[in-house]
Design goal:
Helix content is about 30%, strand content about 20%. By secondary structure, the chain is an alpha+beta fold. It has a domain at about 45-100 and about 110-180: Alpha-Beta Plaits (2-Layer Sandwich), CATH 3.30.70.
Length: about 190
Amino acid sequence: MLSQHARTGASSLRSARAAPGPRAAPRPARVAPRAVATGADSATYEQLEAISCDLSAFPACSFFRVEAIIRPWRTPYVIRALSEAGIRGMTARDVRGVGMQGGSRERYGGTEYAMTDLVDKAALDIVVARDQVDLVVRTVAIAALTGEIGDGKIFIHPVAEVVRVRTGETGAIAERMAGGRTDMISGNASD
C-alpha cells in the first residue's frame, strides 16, 4: 500500500502532465557536432577542417552549388552550423538512395529505419560564391559527421548564372554574394 505522500505526489505529477497550455515544438538539443559524433576521431576532424576544394577546372565560374546528401537527423545540426557561419540560403529536400551503405538499415535512438534497399537521406543545396565553397563544405562535413558508414557525400556543381525572379537581377547582386556575410552581419540585406 502506498503512503498518503506517495499517492499525492503521483497524482500531482499526473495533473501537471495533463495541464493544458501552449507547447512549443521540440527543438533539437544545441550540441556541438564533435560531442555528438562519437564514432569519429580527432584525425578525421583535422582532415575535414583542412578541406580545400579544387575548383580550377572552372576558372570562369563565379558560383557553385554545394549538394550535401546527409543523414536526415543531422539536418538541424548542419543548418544551424551553416547559419552560424553566415550562410543563409539553402534548399532542403528528402531523398532516398543507396551508396556504400548498400541499403543497410540505418539506426538512430535504437530504432531501425528503411523498409527497402533505399535509405532515407536529406539533401541540402547551397549556392555560394567561389570563395565560400570551402567554408560551406567544411561546415557541412563537420556538422554531418557521425563517424559511421552512411554519413553522406558532398558534391560541388558549377552554376552558370543566378537570376532573382522578383527583380530580374543577375550575378552576385541577385544572390547577394558580393557582400554576402558582411551584408548579413551589418544588417544591409533586404531579401
